[in-house]
Amino acid sequence: MPNDVSYTPEEVAKILKISKFTVYEIIKRGELKAYHIGRKVRVEGADIESYKQKSKAMSRTSATESSSGSPLPFNESYQQEPAEALVICGQDIVLDILTRYLEKQFPHVRFLRRYTGSIDGLMSLYRGLANASAVHLWDSDSDDYNLPYVRRILPGHPTYIINLLFRFEGFYVAKGNPKNIVTWSDLTKPGVRFVNREVGSGARVLLDEQLKLLKIRRHDILGYKDEEMTHLAVASKVARSEADVGLGIEKVAMQVNGLDFIPLKKERYDLVIRQEDLERPHFQAMINILKSASFQNEVAGIGGYDLSLMGQIISEV
């Protein structure tokens, strides 16, 4: 490897035989020197070689001290190479349960959760900052979930779309529904205060698509710009009477006192991964977990989900 040549994070990952995300992590921790050319990250060959030599030295030190019986203090720099890390984007609690199952099977792999909305998750997948992203993005032109958005946001990146579950999206309203809010057009009633989700979330996309179809103007909805980052935060605001209505999933309404749920649309909640990753052990395990009776029984026990297609590949994009 020539020392006077610079490399991209992708090329560094191939040289060190680790993931691109792990390369970014060790750069962030200052263990591997890097610099920017505009927005592009580059690493000199000499710095890669220096990192390898330091890692080997740490490995020899670790082996020597371990054989002498002396315990080593905890320090990430004692690892020969950083642990492989896989990032899963999405906000549903089912993803937390899935991560727990994966951690049991691969205790030496770091499974990181990123609680982002659907569009931000797909963008992270496109940029190589995530390994899997859960999405629920409805397209009004095709009346389909997720496929149109995957094609647009990950052009030229072959992916698999794997079903996690189906769930209902609808309105959170106060107990008894005192404002009689049952349809999208009811959001424009005088005095009705709405609480929205952030731009890029699946709930926000569903709302905006419905408003487009019904030719409802956004500025006619009181509170359209009042945003929260999670379904739970939206439900809580309605429960505290700080808003009259919000949009979210049925499961959260079951967890918050003082709410009624008005179902509007059954949505498909899918997991998007790169096709090249499917044969990796972690992703094979992910599919097997999703199809396993133990995992499905645990999720079914939570309630509020349809698991009829869980773990099935919906489409190759």
TrEMBL record:
It holds the Pfam family PBP_like. InterPro entries: HTH_17, PBP_domain, SinI_DNA-bd. Residues 100-291 form the PBP domain. Signal peptide: none annotated. One of its GO terms (molecular function) is DNA binding. Residues 7-54 form the Helix-turn-helix domain. The keyword Transferase does not apply. Residues 54-76 are annotated as: Disordered. Keywords: DNA-binding. Coiled coil: none annotated. Residues 59-70 have a biased composition (Low complexity). NCBIfam families: excise. PANTHER family: BLL2305 PROTEIN. This is DNA-binding protein, excisionase family. It comes from Desulfosporosinus acidiphilus (strain DSM 22704 / JCM 16185 / SJ4).
